[in-house]
C-alpha cells in the first residue's frame, strides 16, 4: 500500500555532510528538524514537504546505482513572496547561487545549492 495522500510528501537528497545539510535547511530555508537518528541520516520538514537528508553511509545513498548518480536536473521548488529580498538575505548569509534570476511567463526564479550541491529553486509567481 502506498503512503496515504494526507501524509508528508518526501524527497531524498544525497548529501556529503548531514549536519551541514541540517544547518543549511533550518537556518536559511525555514525547515525544522524532524528526526536525526544517526549521523548518516536526518529529515527536515517544511509544510507538507519532508526532505530526507541521506549521508554517504545511509541506505538511501548506497542504493543509488552509479550510472544514475547526478541524473537529471531535479530540485526542490519553494515559493517565495519577494524573490529580491530572499536573494539579498541568502547572499548576505553566504549561500551559493547556481543561476541568476530568470524571468518567465509564470514568474521569477533563481537556483541555490545546499552544501552538497543539491538544487533548490526559489520561485515568485507572476502577479
UniProtKB/TrEMBL annotation:
SUPFAM superfamilies noted in UniProt: Glyoxalase/Bleomycin resistance protein/Dihydroxybiphenyl dioxygenase (SSF54593)
Gene3D superfamilies on file: 2,3-Dihydroxybiphenyl 1,2-Dioxygenase, domain 1
Domain (VOC) ranges: 7-125
InterPro entries reported in the protein's UniProt record: Anthracycline_SecMetBiosynth, Glyas_Bleomycin-R_OHBP_Dase, Glyas_Fos-R_dOase_dom, VOC_core
Name of one Pfam family that matches: Glyoxalase
Source species, domain of life: Bacteria
Protein name, as recorded: VOC domain-containing protein
Amino acid at each position: 500500500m502506498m503512503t496515504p495522500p494526507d501524509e508528508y510528501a518526501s524527497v531524498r537528497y544525497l548529501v556529503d555532510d548531514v549536519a551541514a545539510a541540517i544547518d543549511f535547511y533550518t537556518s536559511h530555508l525555514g525547515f525544522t528538524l524532524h528526526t536525526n537518528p544517526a549521523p548518516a541520516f536526518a529529515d527536515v520538514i517544511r509544510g507538507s514537504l519532508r526532505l530526507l537528508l541521506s549521508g554517504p553511509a545511509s541506505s538511501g545513498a548506497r542504493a543509488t546505482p552509479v550510472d544514475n548518480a547526478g541524473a537529471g536536473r531535479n530540485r526542490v521548488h519553494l515559493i517565495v513572496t519577494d524573490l529580491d529580498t530572499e536573494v539579498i538575505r541568502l547572499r548576505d548569509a553566504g549561500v551559493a547561487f547556481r543561476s541568476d534570476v530568470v524571468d518567465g511567463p509564470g514568474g521569477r526564479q533563481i537556483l541555490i545549492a545546499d552544501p552538497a550541491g543539491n538544487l533548490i529553486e526559489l520561485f515568485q509567481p507572476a502577479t
